[in-house]
Design a protein that fits this description.
Elements (H helix, E strand, L loop, with lengths): L9 E6 L5 E4 L15 E7 L5 H13 L1 E4 L17
Antiparallel strand pairs: 1-2, 1-3, 2-4
Length: about 90
Amino acid sequence: MPRAKASGPTVWCFVGAADLWAITLQEDGGNLPPDHGPWRYLRSVRLEGRDPDEREAELLVTAYGYCCFQPFASNEPFIPPAAHGR
């Protein structure tokens, strides 16, 4: 019998300025970029990697602590500036 995939991390969802959304590993959103705030808490969710976008978001959150995006506007996630030089 195949094993079920373990659930991914719990993340906290926030919405910031200009309809920018973010998920973060920090419950208080303290690691979100302040220049895109103020950040308003929406809810917590558990990432389960059900589709490619969610898997990519999980990778970014695991690597950088958060992932910003504009829902339905683009398939490209916001990559933290510190990540561009890697």
